[in-house]
Design brief:
Largest sheet: 7 strands, mixed
Strand order of the largest sheet: 1-2-7-12-10-11-9
Low-confidence stretches: none
Strand content: 15-25%
Number of strands: 13
Number of helices: 8
Helix content: 25-40%
Order of helices and strands: EEEEEEHHEHEEHEEHEHHEH
């Protein structure tokens, strides 16, 4: 796996680009059978989901199969990397590339410290209120409401969120107060239209308990290399077309017409920057056995739970 830092024109660090090769099928993957989804890790069912037509939300059921591939993070690491999202990104990237149970597969990915989740908080809303509202409720079953949370992108834990009295949360609350809390690692999954917590359930709970903004690192697919060159050519072509159009206008109306560079140049810069960071849809693979297999897994996972109302529809 090749890693390279992504920065803005002013040098501000945005994220870490990951170029993955020879990893055709990830060990944490999304499988599909019509409107039914299965998130599976190392052949263990993690999350069952059914997209509600007409695209209003997702019924889900956690299968208690998820295991984080990130080893426990020590407090001294939090202090050493405090304020260093780039350092944390490189550390998490090693685990993403080397540990079993990771969602990485062939293509380009971005591990970014910038997330749309951080832009939605109203000034009058506390961090605790905001981040609590971003959490999808319900365990083991629940509902991701696309209508109510349109374009606000919720967070779906892959296990039950620990309470403020949990021993891990208590330890992280001290780090949250000190400003040394390690980032919460999220994975954007387009088929669910929300973020899954890959690592950091207790850290997010600690940030909410202390009402501080949790540091985040968001993982998502970005433009593949074989498509990147074509998109760059399109952006440059649009820039050149705009300059040529202004040149024709100047030839007719004189030098009072601007040459177009003042508007076309920044637009080109924004498009090229977006190509480094823009989210691409999550890859999914057909579930062997289709809907019949999905229903079999759903019956097996939900058997004996006594929670039929929150069970994903079969």
């Amino acid at each position: 796996m090749q890693r390279s830092d992504v920065t803005r024109d002013d040098g501000t660090w945005v994220g870490l680009s990951l170029e993955v090769q020879d990893r055709h099928r990830p060990e944490l993957s999304v499988l599909t059978a019509g409107p039914r989804l299965l998130v599976s890790q190392l052949s263990r069912p993690v999350l069952l989901a059914v997209v509600e037509e007409p695209l209003r939300g997702v019924d889900f059921w956690r299968a208690d199969g998820y295991r984080s591939f990130v080893p426990p993070l020590r407090a001294d690491a939090g202090r050493a990397l405090s304020g260093r999202p780039d350092g944390w990104a490189h550390r998490f990237a090693r685990h993403l590339g080397d540990s079993p149970g990771s969602p990485l597969h062939d293509g380009r990915w971005l591990l970014s410290c910038e997330s749309p989740l951080q832009r939605g908080r109203h000034a009058a809303t506390s961090h605790a209120e905001h981040w609590s509202s971003m959490l999808v409720e319900g365990h083991p079953g629940g509902y991701v409401d696309w209508f109510f949370h349109s374009v606000s992108w919720e967070i779906l834990p892959l296990g039950p969120m620990p309470g403020p009295g949990d021993s891990r949360v208590k330890a992280y609350r001290k780090q949250a107060r000190e400003g040394t809390l390690p980032p919460v690692l999220l994975w954007w999954v387009s088929g669910l239209d929300c973020h899954l917590i890959l690592d950091g359930h207790a850290r997010l709970a600690a940030a909410i308990a202390e009402s501080v903004e949790p540091p985040l690192l968001q993982l998502h697919r970005t433009v593949p290399r074989d498509d990147l060159a074509a998109r760059v050519d399109d952006a440059v072509g649009a820039y050149e077309y705009e300059l040529a159009r202004h040149a024709e206008l100047r030839a007719v109306h004189g030098p009072t017409v601007p040459d177009g560079a003042a508007t076309a140049g920044p637009r080109l810069g924004r498009r090229l920057q977006d190509l480094k960071t823009v989210e691409q849809p999550t890859w999914a693979w057909p579930l062997p056995g289709g809907e019949g297999e999905w229903r079999r897994i759903a019956r097996e996972v939900t058997a004996g739970t006594g929670r039929p109302r929150t069970r994903p529809r079969t």
